[in-house]
Amino acid sequence: MTAYQTLESKFKRLAGIDGALSVLHWDSATMMPDGGAETRAEQLATLAAIRHECLVDPSIPELAAKAVDEVDIADHWRRANVREMLRQWRHANAVPPELVERRSRANSACEMAWRSARSRSDFAAVAPLLTDVVAVAIDVAAIKAQALGCTPYDALLDSYDPDLRSAEVDRIFADLASFLPGFLDRVLAKQGREPAGVLPPGPFPVEAQRALADRLIDALGFDRRHGRLDSSHHPFTGGVPADVRITTRYDVANFIRSLMAVIHETGHALYEMGLPVAWRDQPAGGSRGMTLHESQSLLMEMHACRSSEFLGYLAPQACAVFGGKGPTWEPTNLRRVYLKVERGLIRVDADEVTYPLHVILRYDLERALLDGSLKVVDLPGAWREGMKRLVGIAPPDDKDGCMQDIHWYGGDFGYFPTYTLGALAAAQLFAAAKEADPTIPSAIGRGDFAPLVSWLRANVHGVASRLSTQEILVAATKEPIGTEAFKRHITARYLDG
Amino acid sequence: MTAYQTLESKFKRLAGIDGALSVLHWDSATMMPDGGAETRAEQLATLAAIRHECLVDPSIPELAAKAVDEVDIADHWRRANVREMLRQWRHANAVPPELVERRSRANSACEMAWRSARSRSDFAAVAPLLTDVVAVAIDVAAIKAQALGCTPYDALLDSYDPDLRSAEVDRIFADLASFLPGFLDRVLAKQGREPAGVLPPGPFPVEAQRALADRLIDALGFDRRHGRLDSSHHPFTGGVPADVRITTRYDVANFIRSLMAVIHETGHALYEMGLPVAWRDQPAGGSRGMTLHESQSLLMEMHACRSSEFLGYLAPQACAVFGGKGPTWEPTNLRRVYLKVERGLIRVDADEVTYPLHVILRYDLERALLDGSLKVVDLPGAWREGMKRLVGIAPPDDKDGCMQDIHWYGGDFGYFPTYTLGALAAAQLFAAAKEADPTIPSAIGRGDFAPLVSWLRANVHGVASRLSTQEILVAATKEPIGTEAFKRHITARYLDG
Question: Model pTM?
Answer without folding.
Answer: 0.95
